[in-house]
UniProtKB/TrEMBL annotation, chain A:
This is F-box domain-containing protein. It comes from the Eukaryota. Transmembrane segments: none annotated. InterPro entries: F-box-like_dom_sf, F-box_dom. Gene3D superfamilies: 1.20.1280.50. Residues 25-66 form the F-box domain. PANTHER family: F-BOX DOMAIN CONTAINING PROTEIN-RELATED (PTHR33207). Coiled coil: none annotated.
TrEMBL record, chain B:
Part of a SCF (SKP1-cullin-F-box) protein ligase complex. This is SKP1-like protein. Belongs to the SKP1 family. Pfam families: Skp1, Skp1_POZ. It comes from the Eukaryota. It comes from Eleusine coracana subsp. coracana. Keywords: Ubl conjugation pathway.
Amino acid sequence: MRSHKKRSSSSSRRLSLSMVLEDEDLLGEILVRVALPTSLVRAALVCRHWLCVASDPGFLLRFHCLHPPRVLGFYMSSPQASTSPSSCRRLVISRRSSPTACAARRLGARRLRIPTIPRWRLFQIA
Amino acid sequence: MAAPESGDGNNGAARMVTLISSDNTRFEVEAAAASLSQTLQLTILDGGGGGGDGIPLPNVDSATLSKVLEYCIKHAPAAANGGAPNATAVDRAELERFDNEFVNIDQSVLYSLIMAAHNLEIEGLQSLVAKKVADMIKGKSPMEIRRTLGFPDPTPEEQAEMNAHMLEYGWAYE
């Protein structure tokens, strides 16, 4: 087997890079393997083309099948919640160290509000 | 080309085929290894690539083809056994070790490999290399991903778009 020569010039690197990353199929193959929804959101924000590929319904379905959502945590409300709905609800995250949990915890404090909530309710982040 | 370990259980002496890279380098390889490529498989089944003919691959240069064949030769025995249902844990661990080292390469080679695996339809290789690039992306912010993959600097328009996204998805930029 002959040994390969490394092509290290930035122009050839850039050419290959753009050929790979501008191809929707190849980019999709890469993005579908980032596994975590948080990594996918970060990747989708790289540029408009990546956002387009990462938000395609067919792509998202495949991503969802390959990496099914797991229960991340739940909202817990105390009996007083029925009288003061917004103050006694707490987002409890079961897997505290995962990147998804970190993002959800930050969002959970500010954005993940549920208007009416039973006493216990599982909440799943896709 | 070094003779690979024998992986064909029912064909007798291994049949060889010749592949010709875009820069006219000839590679002689076992048909079983080259057949990992769905693109080449039909041609080889039809008897192509033998003798002095060779199969031209105008989209794959010799450096990339050499690397692709290294993968195919290593994986051909397992593929010939139908995904190696009776492979030992040692065999599987050895293939995994090979795969990990195989993708530990310069980014330009990685990109050429993705293109070649896509063109030649070698599913395992395509998956392996795409996973490697995905691992390079995982856990990084959009700007870090751009830097890692050698994107050019964002245009003012792209920068303005990113700034707007940053307000909406601040956590993703940390």
